[in-house]
Each structure stands twice: as structure tokens, then as C-alpha cells.
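Researcher: I'm preparing a figure for a lab meeting and need a structural model of a single chain. I don't have an experimental structure, so a prediction will have to do for now. The sequence is pasted below. Please return the structure as C-alpha cells so I can convert it later.
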Amino acid sequence: MIVTDALSKSYGEFKAVHELGLTVERGELFGFLGPNGAGKTTTIRMLMGILVPSGGRATVDGFDCQRERVEVARRVGYVPDTPTFYDFLRGREILEFVAEMHGLPRPEARARAATLLGELSLGEAAEEYAVNYSAGMKKKLGLACALVHDPPVLILDEPTNGLDPRAAREVQDRLRAGAAAGKTVFLSTHLLHMAERLCSRIGIIDGGRLVAAGTLEELRTKLSPGGSLEEVFLKVTDPDRPDPASADRPPPTADPASPDRPTGSRT
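Model: Understood. Here is the structure written out cell by cell.
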């Protein structure tokens, strides 16, 4: 359902993602893990057609994430790490707008919006302007926008950040049920205990490269017999381990703040 083939992204001499090769099957709940700055969000943005790869390609349900990104958007529910909305639209209006943009007739858009707002405990805030939403409420509204057109694929960047424990558990239950019903879930998170509990298979990226992939049992057997996902993660992302991408990075020749290099935070 999701395939990347030598997918790469460079900023000048810096390689944020290096020849990433992944396959995520239909109905799989795939955990995409890595330290800060490993390349997770960059990868997700390439899958969504937001960033243009420097090399390789990615497909979702057989559609090229760059050349056919409109078809990809029809099939994907996407939640970025920090969802943003038109501040002076109400939560209900935003969700109905997104549903209609996905082609739902207005009566169906209204019905689905009302259902999701209720299920995600946003019913009482449906008529409140988004500018007044808390971070957790915005994250839940972002999830509602991702779900409103009932897509076969969910691509989620830190979907439980900012949520209280009860809301986080409800989101996890929803993701598990979605995968059981045949949806493909691509989940980026720093919460290793959540990934260990939810994910059928896991990929770990470090320094822009995939350093481990498989079921939790396969990763344990190979890397940390009897250990936890945290122990596996710490082993393959050891800060004292030589950076596998370092051989591909020439020494810097320009000021780090030059336009050829990223100046903001990266993930």
C-alpha cells in the first residue's frame, strides 16, 4: 500500500533521507520511529507530495506521491505533527469544509462531521472558533479531518502529542480498529511503549537511513533477545555509533546558516 524506493532528500550537502526503502502492506499498522532529526517528518512530507524528493520515488496504493499527489490525497488521511487551521472558522465548519473538498455531498459532510466531533469529544466545542482550541483539541480536530472521507490509508505524525491520557488511549483504540478493518496506518511517534503495543511492524530511521525493520519479535531476536522495543531502539540509534551517512557527507564548505543549508529544526 505504501512503497518507497531509494527515496532521498538532500539540502545542499546535507542528506536528510538517504535511499529509504520501505514496504507497508494493506491493513498493517506500521510504526516509523527515530530520534529527533532522523528524517521521519521529511519522509512523511515526501509521501504527501509536500516535499519533492532529491532521488528515488514513493507510491501510495500504486499512485506516485509526486506526479499523482491528488490521487494520493484522495486515499490518505494525513495528520501533521502540528495541525493548522483557519483560526476564525468554527470546528464544525472546518470539518464540513474538508469533507466537501473530498467530494462528499453537503448533507453527508454535515452528518460525518457531527459524528466525528461527537466521537472525538469535540461536540461541545463544535461551534467554537479554532483559534480558541487548545493544542490537544487541534490535534483531535486534525484527526477528524483525516478520517472524515474514510480513507484506506492514514499517515500520522505524532498523532497523540498534546492529548490527555484518556484521549490518547481512544485514538490508539481507533487506530487499532482501523487496521483490523483493513486500513493501512503509517504512524510516526516517539512513544515507544505505544508503538510496542500497537504496531504490527516497525521501521527505525537514524541519520536519514533505515537501520532496522521488522516485527517486534524479529527485531528482538536479531538485536536484543528478550528485550523491549526501547532496548532495540537505543541499540540501533546509539549516539556513539558511527553515523552510517557520514561517509556520504563531504566536509562543510559553507557557513551553516547559508541558504544552501536548512536553518530550522528538522525531524
